[in-house]
């Protein structure tokens, strides 16, 4: 939400990941390329300024990039770099997908120390066992944490949130800092106030949930692509996914989209903006978007 409101002037969606890549991982990736001719995965790119920022799509790109370099970077260095990102982003890093992280890095250590090809030898005791591999789902937590790793201008963010009470101090944001920023701010010229002028939503007083109000003109009786295009400038992708899936039905010509799975695949493909290798990837995207939408109140106007 905050990143959407402050985009693009006060947001660096890939800043922390790029700095970590340069400082912790890039030398190993380049070394493998020179020594063994391995491909150098392309670092994800920031979306066009006019297209808005879709955090889940960018999170998928970062996840895929991390998966590719995980076989090129020593496990200790890979883990160190991720820990740097977590330390910068979370108050309590121990609670951030601990089981998933443990499984992934334990699996990578096995891959780096075991001679996997020895399993093909008839003399190997592993010959009749399945070939060891790491499921692609082991990397999904990277996409889940990505939104919390986005860097925003701290002072601009404080000014944008100035009407919300500071319930408690967090890492890097003390009460004294907030008061100092608000005293010295010139909100008339700030990016924050430009965003406030067109609020994306409001917070419900009784439960603190964000409430998104969707006028019927955005979605009622319109084709899916038109709904997406009308909403993308004002609403997060998760809200658009919710509206398309639950409020908009398949068009008469879209007979293949009438099953629940087919409909989720269709909407996921519409929102992804790029091609994935299989239909399940689009449904996984929808699962993540709808999980985020569960935290909101989305109402028809």
TrEMBL record:
Domain of life according to the entry: Bacteria
Protein name: Uncharacterized protein
Organism: Desulfovibrio porci
